[in-house]
Amino acid sequence: MLLLTWLCLFVFAAKELYTMASNLKPLELLQQLPIEDRAKLGRPLVSCYAGDTCKDALEKMRTTNLSCLPVFGSASEADNLVGLIDLSDIVNLVAKMHWNKLRNSTEHKKFSADWTQWGQYTVAQALTDRKRSPTTVADSATLADVAKVLVTTRVPRVLVRSGSGSIVGVITQTDVVNALHSNMAKLSADVANRQLSQFKHIQDKATRAVIAVDRDHLAIDAFRLMADEQISALPVIDFDGNRTPEGTLTHRDVRGVLDDADFPLGLYNQSALAFSLKMHGGHEAKLKPLSIALQLTSTLKDAVDTMHQYHIHQVWVMNEKNQVAHVVSLTDLLAEALNN
User: Fold this and answer.
1) 172, 274: one domain
2) I need a labelling partner for 207 at 20 to 30 A (CA). Which of 85, 127, 143, 305 fits?
3) For this UniProt entry, which residues form the secretion signal (predicted)?
């Protein structure tokens, strides 16, 4: 009888512990997770030097499937961190270099010297002031520490410093959101099932239109718009039709055309839609924008699952007419999670 009583107490205690472990707030969950695994510490750090060409830096990002590189002064200044360069810097440089010239001329051949010049631009020339002092965290930090920094500074990634002060890794918004995805069962149901319509940034921007590009505009128009608005993706829409999305363009697409003989000239002779289909018409052919978009009734869990499954940094939120009404980014997800 006594043994049965102890057994019942043990089962009850185990259930209570499981319930407590499965009812965590996002911040509580992330505080339990060190950054070591997510930041892939211990692996060789992929970086570049300030004197490297942007073309070489972009090629390194492409071959390693990375979106950014820590920048050091030179090979002789391996500990002299001078910045962080990412795909947005490359896109902005290309857009600003050639915008005025090519938009005012139909003779693209006369600018062949400029395409050579593109290959000579250095990483130091592409670095923005904001990227010259990249945010860092200690390698002893938790994902909660990282998430707070990412949300408060509105940066997509931070560098990781060792105890000796050396840069040993990079941790991104994607790493933190993927950690939430892996531990979703431990999150409070109230948080996981929170509808997108309840997200603060969506309520704050209820009447603000999502920035988009017309399907017939040039691809360079889209990248210039991203540069001007400081965003990393655009829906491609038929402005004269029903305004439903027909494609998506992102900064990461630049990696896919680096080997083109006419890069970046090709950005000027393809429409935004044609370029989008070129970038996403292969293994993603079935992933039409509407098929992976969400609704206002979708939940935080739905958004985390979608971004994790399709390796995307933002997802479009549709209205009842299947038009893009909002966008939820990785930053938005983290901000909403921390606010709960």
Assistant:
1) no
2) 305
3) 1-21
Residue 261 lies inside a defined structural domain of this protein: yes
Note whether residue 20 is domain-resident: no
Q: Quote the pTM value.
A: 0.82
What's the CATH number where 79 sits? 3.10.580.10
Tens digits of pLDDT across the chain (340 residues): 555 555 554 444 444 444 445 689 999 999 999 988 777 776 788 999 999 998 899 889 988 888 899 999 987 776 789 999 998 888 777 766 655 554 454 444 443 444 456 667 899 988 877 778 889 999 999 999 999 999 998 889 999 999 888 898 899 999 999 999 999 999 999 999 999 999 998 988 766 789 999 999 988 888 888 888 888 899 999 888 778 888 888 888 877 776 666 676 777 788 999 888 888 765 444 455 556 899 999 999 999 999 999 888 899 999 988 889 999 999 999 999 888 7
* Same domain (yes/no): 196, 328: yes
- Say how far apart CA 198 and CA 208 lie, in whole Å: 16
